[in-house]
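User: Please run a holo structure prediction.
Assistant: Happy to. Please share the sequence and the ligand.
User: Here you go; the ligand is 2'-deoxycytidine-5'-monophosphate.
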Amino acid sequence: MGALSAPPVIAIDGPTASGKGTVAALVAKALGFHYLDSGALYRLVALASEREGISSTNAYFLSKLAESMPVAFQGGQILLGEEDVSELIRTEAIGLRASEIAVHPELRQALVRLQHGFRQNPGLVADGRDMASVIFPDARLKVFLTASVAARAERRYKQLIAKGFSANMEDLLHDLKQRDARDSNRGSAPLVVAEGAKVLDTSDLSIDQAVKQVIGWYQSLAECAQ
Ligand code: DC
């Protein structure tokens, strides 16, 4: 599909717990677009591979598993086979394992086709680390959504407590910094501010303000294109 005829994409990348998932889902809803939570795919491979006893260093088996994984996104639910794993993949342990396995280029490649499949009319909002740089380099709008480490740790703490998981602020700060470092310094598709991306620091913004800003940017681009 050529870039001119392909459905438009809004790519929202950023570090862990920056709020990009919440913002991306709300932007998609407001515009009536599809939504891709690419981090969920890495989390699904992390969960499935742990269950199968596959080591986080075994790039070959991880990518084979990713290619054959029975995944479905249904409404708000994420299914692995028949099982609803929406909550199970949100733990810190699975997030850390996802970050560990995401360093392998073979696994990243195995997930490309699945991600491209989400690009459907009338458009797609995709969130992750490499949406703008690698998966959808022709995205109409590229946003790098970030927030201070302290703000992100606090948000993650509240999220975990609200879901009934136990959480410790010091451990969370440590885990966030560890994941930031690994996601940003890996050789394959590291987290970067893509060329042409607009940076949005949400440390002092509400979710609503962040959503409005992204939609505002998208609409002004659409007006310029007319
Ligand atoms: O966005 P998240 O916290 O759910 O992502 C979990 C991990 O998956 C993240 O630490 C790195 C990896 N990931 C990635 O490498 N590329 C993406 N596009 C999305 C996530």
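Residues 88 and 94 are 8 Å apart (CA to CA).
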